[in-house]
Amino acid sequence: MSVTDTAIEKIRELIITGELSPGDRLAPEQDLAAMLGISRSSLREAVKALSQAKVLDVRRGDGTYITSLSPNLLLSGLSFAVDLVRDQTLHEVFEVRRLLEPAATALAATRVTDAQIEGLRRSLELMRATDDPEEMVHRDVEFHAQVVAASGNETLCSIVAAISARALRARIWRASIAGVKSLTLVQHSAIVDALEERDAALASSAATLHLSASQKWFRELEHPETVAAADSDGEIAPSYIG
User: How far apart are CA 28 and CA 197, in angstroms?
Assistant: First the structure.
């Protein structure tokens, strides 16, 4: 382990043990380096790395502070990492969504508020009012984010948001296919209805059906020679935006 890695680990331990808490200001560089038993140059490298990881906030002329350590902050780099996933493994992104979102939707059914239900209904109306594929997908992403937000789990929200963003280009392309909009609205409405009933099992099932259709569409896109959902004209049957 390098000296810098050792310094990072020591600062991490100070946070884990509670000696440093969110919002705390670190000791001056010279004092902190002496306390950790490392050189000031190694400490600077450690601080730089932890700043990039959103663990530390370096304020020029003021000092270095522990950030809020909130999940959405610490996991903000996940979206960047997921964006680098090669198209050959993009199907895995859909698989992860299918694993996480139905569970998040079930949890949301036990915690959703009336105000959040109203917000979801408004999202459906905004999607219904547009015929622009890009705006439709924007509304779709917004809808799914609202559902997961209703779970009350900030960590889950951050992970799902990062994963969901990866397939935006494919979703926009799919949104331009005739019939997709109406089918998507039907599935979204089923999710909202289940949430309004506070029925976790039904909510999970509605989300699973919706995401399964998205995953099926992507498999067909990857392997057109195996498409089973073709009509008599040889066109791929419309699927959901997802």
Answer: 55
Neighbour-count burial of 201, counting CB atoms closer than 10 A to its CB (0-12 exposed, 13-18 middle, 19+ buried): exposed
Q: What is the mean pLDDT of residues 220-224?
A: 59
Distance CA 145, CA 165 (A): 11
| Residue 164: both structure tokens together | 């969901």
For residue range 122-148, list pLDDT tens digits in order: 999 999 999 888 888 889 889 999 999
| Long-range Cβ contacts of 33-41 (<8 Å, 24+ apart) | 36/7, 36/10, 36/11, 38/3, 38/6, 38/7, 38/10, 39/3
Residue 164, pLDDT above cutoff 70: yes
Give the pair of three-digit tokens for residue 238: 């419309």
113 has pLDDT over 50: yes
174: amino acid identity, one letter: R
Q: SS in 3 state form for the chain? A: CCHHHHHHHHHHHHHHCCCCCCCCECCCHHHHHHHHCCCHHHHHHHHHHHHHCCCEEEECCCEEEECCCCHHHHCHHHHHHHHCCCHHHHHHHHHHHHHHHHHHHHHHHHHCCHHHHHHHHHHHHHHHCCCCHHHHHHHHHHHHHHHHHCCCCHHHHHHHHHHHHCCHHHHHHHHCCCCHHHHHHHHHHHHHHHHHCCCHHHHHHHHHHHHHHHHHHHHHHHCHHHCCCECCCCCECCCCCC
Distance CA 148, CA 188 (A): 13
